[in-house]
Amino acid sequence: MKTRTLLLLSLACGVAIMLAGAALLFQLATSDEPSAATPIGEEVLVGDMAVSVVGSEEAAGTLTVTVTLVGVDDPDGGAPFGLIAGGRRLRPEPPTGDDCAATSATELRRCTVRFDVAEADGVSRVLFYGRGEDQARWQLA
């Protein structure tokens, strides 16, 4: 190939990349904003589970969140909780005592979810719960 042909091909590739970048930028600029956080105390339906955050307390590097769950018989119904703290996603500590584990389809279960936040920077705490393709979030701090 001649040098002129290679230069024209590289110019065409550069223009194609710039157009793709402009299309992506337009798509990001017009995308919907994320839904608002669910208020503390308000019940929300996440998939087949009704979930409500009653309150939260942070002490000695542990965040304890009190929740209510009802909607389906599931031995791991409390497992889908997650927390964003200090820019990192944290998984809940293994359940003990009154911690959330099994849920019921008919009995409202009030339980706690604990997270180790000793290594988390900042004070922002966002709790997530997801089932199926649905997800809810709560701004705790």
Walk me through what this model shows:
With 141 residues, the chain is α+β, with helices and mostly antiparallel strands. It has two domains: 1-31; 44-139, Immunoglobulin-like (Sandwich). Helix content is 20%, strand content 37%. The chain contains one helix and eight strands; from the N terminus they run H-E-E-E-E-E-E-E-E. The strands form two sheets. A four-stranded antiparallel sheet has the order 1-2-3-6, with no helix packed on it. A four-stranded antiparallel sheet has the order 5-4-7-8, with no helix packed on it. The protein is elongated and about 75 Å long.
Q: What can be said about this structure in brief?
A:
This protein has one helix at residues 3-30, and strands at residues 44-46, 49-59, 62-70, 81-85, 88-90, 109-116, 125-131, 134-139. The protein has 141 residues and is α+β, with helices and mostly antiparallel strands.
What is the fold's blueprint, element by element?
Elements: H1 3-30, E1 44-46, E2 49-59, E3 62-70, E4 81-85, E5 88-90, E6 109-116, E7 125-131, E8 134-139
Task: Kindly identify the CATH topology of the largest domain.
Answer: Immunoglobulin-like
- Subunit organisation of the chains: single chain
Q: What distance lies between the first and last C-alpha atoms, to the nearest angstrom?
A: 63 Å
For the record, the CATH class of the largest domain is: Mainly Beta
Give the helix level as a range of percent. Answer: 10-25%
**What is the overall shape?**
elongated
> What series of H and E elements makes up the topology?
HEEEEEEEE
Instruction: Pick out the low-confidence regions.
Output: none
Tell me, rounded to a whole number, the average pLDDT: 87
What's the story with the biggest beta sheet? Answer: 4 strands, antiparallel
Number of strands: 8
User: How much of the sequence is in beta strands?
Assistant: 35-45%
Which structural class do the helices and strands define?
Answer: alpha+beta
- Radius of gyration over alpha carbons? 23 Å
Total DSSP helices? 1
Strand arrangement, major sheet: 1-2-3-6
> How many distinct domains?
2
